[in-house]
Amino acid sequence: MTNKVINRRDALASGMLALIASQAANSRSHAQGTNGKRLVAFLSRSGNTRVLADALAREFEADLFEIRPRDPWPEDYEEMVDWATRIRESDMNLPLAESLGSLSSYQTVFLGFPIWGMAMPSVMTSFLKQHDFSGKTIAPFITHGGYGVGSAIETIRALLPQSGIRAPFILECDQERATLNQLRSWLAGLDKPL
User: Which of 32, 40, 105, 122 could disulfide-link 87, Cβ–Cβ 3.0 to 4.6 Å?
Assistant: First the structure.
């Protein structure tokens, strides 16, 4: 018998694919809309939201669009948290790396993002402000590190009042802060012999 090591992204992807397969028959009419294409627009820093976005794009044969800021965010997690906090507190509209253009050919938009500081990331807020979602069906999928979705749903409702917003898919994923704290704890005890 062979032991296979499964990483968290593989587990997340297989779990999400099973969930999508079991719910696809019930949700397909909502996801297809009326004669419109589907779009999966997502923001992902650590890769968790990307796994979900890829699975949705495959399942619904949807176009895929990654939302990124024009100026890349810091690679270091703690610097990233500081950056995201500064941006959120300044309430500034961030320039994006790419524009999607018109959403006129899309009936349904799967909208994916992680929660940063109990809120929707400013990058995602900028994306929503730059596009017209009027008359679109919005299906949010949200990842978080253990603190829930915070104010994200209220933000979506406020920014997209002319859209049909569906109940969100919410998934708790590994939190980088917890991972780094566990690493620090291990490093603190490295001088102790076995």
Answer: 122
Query: pLDDT tens, position by position, for the chain (194 residues)?
Result: 444 444 555 555 555 544 444 444 344 444 444 457 999 999 999 888 999 999 999 999 999 999 999 998 898 888 988 998 888 888 778 899 998 989 999 999 999 999 998 999 999 999 999 999 999 999 999 999 888 999 999 999 999 999 999 999 999 987 666 777 777 788 888 777 77
**CATH number, residue 141:** 3.40.50.360
Nearest to 166, CA basis, from 136, 137, 129: 137
The model carries a pTM of 0.76
Task: Give a yes or no: residue 2 inside a domain.
Answer: no
Among 53, 11, 14, 3, residue whose Cα is nearest residue 169: 53
User: Which range of residues forms the domain containing residue 114?
Assistant: 8-17+32-188
Structural domains of the chain, count = 1
Pairing of the two strands 106-114 and 169-172:
unpaired
